[in-house]
Each structure stands twice: as structure tokens, then as C-alpha cells.
Amino acid sequence: MSTLGKRIRLLRHQKGWSQKDAATQLDISIPAFSKIEAGITDINLSRIIQISKLFNVSVLQLLSSSDTEEIKDYVNEIDAIKQKLQQRDDEIIELQKKVIDLYEQLYKK
To answer: Which residues form a coiled coil (predicted)?
Structure first.
């Protein structure tokens, strides 16, 4: 993933948007947006300007590569938070099952 792609992904995650959300706002296809994030496709200046406006950052901030490590940290942190949320969801489902079982046991008698 390119530095620009990582930065765009980070900005998208900070907004809580899916790739579909960002692609729709940029009026491009989801695969096209995915390729931008992955660094597979080169983007022209007008698209860079459009993306910077979408995320409310300057073109310079978008293109700056000085904080690549910070981006990696944010992406890792986001991934860790997603994993914790999934674990919590799983725990909630298990607790709901237990409540249902207890309810059924209580009212079967």
C-alpha cells in the first residue's frame, strides 16, 4: 500500500466511512477507490484535490510522507479496536443466549 493510499485509508477510517461511502462521494466505483487506497492506480492532481476536499485536509497534508509511522500506528490501532469490538459482540451474543436459556428454564417449570 502506498503512503498516499495509507493516508487516504486512515482518513476514511477516521470518518467512519466504508470504501463505498467514500467512492460514492467521489463519484467513482468502489473498485476504483480500492485501487487508490491500495496504491495500484496513479491518481491525477484533480482527483487529489477532490480527495483533499472530501477529507477536509490540504493537498500538502494529503501528500506529505513525513508521518508514515504514525499512519501505521493509527491503522494498527483501528484494527485492534475492530478486533476488540468483535470480541465484545461475541460476548454479548453468548450472554443473550444464556439469558434466553435461563428464561426458558424458569418458565418451563
So the answer is: 71-98
